[in-house]
Amino acid sequence: MGESEFLAQADATLSRIALALDELNDEGMIDVECSRSGNVLEIEFIDNGSKIIVNSQAAMQEMWVASRSGGYHYRMRDGKWRNTRDDSELFSALSEMVSAQGGAPVCLEGCSE
Fold first, then answer.
1. Backbone phi and psi for residue 74, each to the nearest 5 degrees, phi listed first
2. CB neighbourhood size of 54 (10 A)
3. CA pair distance 100, 106, nearest whole angstrom
4. Cβ-count burial of 3 within 10 angstroms (0-12 exposed, 13-18 middle, 19+ buried)?
């Protein structure tokens, strides 16, 4: 994938994550605040002050996630962001991370994988 295609997909992914979390926040499922600066999305959990950081790494063509449970790298394969270590899908894994840090079960896209 070329750099411009990667940047477009990464931007769309960060936007989808922020939108999904904003909707869950509006529904009262979790209390989070999302802020974005360029290729970095910061998810702050209001109740406990913890954060999850999601950012794109254009040089590596990866999405990186940092959470309480650790740091993870995702690379696009077959139309999905896949963990470079265990092949888990980004949205499923992020759902688990958000649930753990937010104290309530939530499901972003791709929870069935």
1. -125, 135
2. 26
3. 9
4. exposed
Looking at residue 89, the DSSP 8-state letter turns out to be B
Integer Cα distance of 2 and 36 in angstroms: 24
Residues 10, 54: Cα–Cα separation, whole Å: 10
Residues 108, 113: Cα–Cα separation, whole Å = 11
Q: Distance between CA atoms of 56 and 38, rounded to whole angstroms?
A: 9
DSSP string spanning 15-68? HHHHHHHHHHHHTTS--EEEEEETTEEEEEETTT--EEEEEEETTTTEEEEEET
In this predicted model, what pLDDT tens digit does every residue of 37-75 receive, in sequence order?
A: 999 999 999 999 999 999 999 999 999 999 999 999 999
In the block, which residue shows the tokens 């109740």?
47
